[in-house]
Specification:
By secondary structure, the protein is α/β, with parallel strands linked by helices. The protein has 4 helices and 9 strands; from the N terminus they run ββββαβαβαβββα. A 6-stranded mixed β-sheet has the order 3-8-7-4-5-6, with helices on both faces.
Length: 213
């Protein structure tokens, strides 16, 4: 329920509504508008390549070599974003914050980016879409990307003064996610309404379990 409702204070209760899809309560790190169905990938690691493996010390003994290392990182990041573009990926969903070089090349190659997804949001997206996280730095960086979900829409949404991401996925299961927008004059009223609705849904779940049995 926590991932399927959003509260907006300062609006009348009558403004509450139900929207199809998911609402991610953060703004785009990069937004590149695109029409029609969008291929989306989910990542759980930084896309800026590391110069060394974890636990391995990397020593640079001159400014020239340091600058060469930065150029190598930039070229590798650009190649990855170009690879996403060539696989028709238009949306990158990340559980970690990506570095500026990733955002720069994402904008350059028309890939929208949403960062800092919670573990609960990641799990929900995986459940809806049936895809797993994409690991870009495996044995073959340039392999075909098969871990892609289909988003029917992805657009900015303004809830009160907060900018959010509104996204709809093609679901591979019977569950078709919808988000409840709860409006109220103050946060306390919204919390009361949310608690009451969550209790009602819990009661309905228990009722239907008894019917099934």
């Amino acid at each position: 329920f926590a991932e399927l409702h959003a509260a907006v204070a300062g609006l009348p209760v009558a403004s509450s509504r139900v929207l199809p899809g998911l609402i991610l309560r953060r703004d785009f790190a990069a937004y590149c508008p695109a029409g029609g169905d969008l291929r989306a990938v989910l990542v759980t690691e930084p896309l800026r390549p590391a110069l060394s493996a974890p636990g391995v010390e990397f020593v640079v003994d001159s400014e020239g070599r340091y600058q060469a290392s930065l150029r190598w990182i930039a070229r590798r990041t650009e190649a990855l974003m170009k690879h996403l573009q060539s696989n028709s990926v238009k949306l990158l969903l990340s559980s970690v914050k990506q570095e500026e070089v990733v955002i720069y090349y994402a904008k350059l190659y028309g890939v929208s980016v949403v960062e800092c997804l919670s573990s609960e949001e990641v799990a929900l997206i995986c459940e809806i879409t049936g895809v797993s996280a994409y690991a870009p730095f495996g044995d073959n960086v340039y392999r075909e990307i098969t871990e892609a979900a289909v988003a029917t829409f992805c657009q900015p949404l303004l809830l009160g003064s907060k900018r959010c991401v509104h996204i709809g996925f093609t679901s591979v299961c019977a569950f078709q996610p919808h988000c409840l927008i709860l409006c109220g004059p103050v946060d306390g009223v919204n919390k009361q309404h949310a608690a009451a609705l969550q209790g009602a849904f819990t009661m309905l779940q228990q009722l239907y379990k008894r019917v099934d049995q």
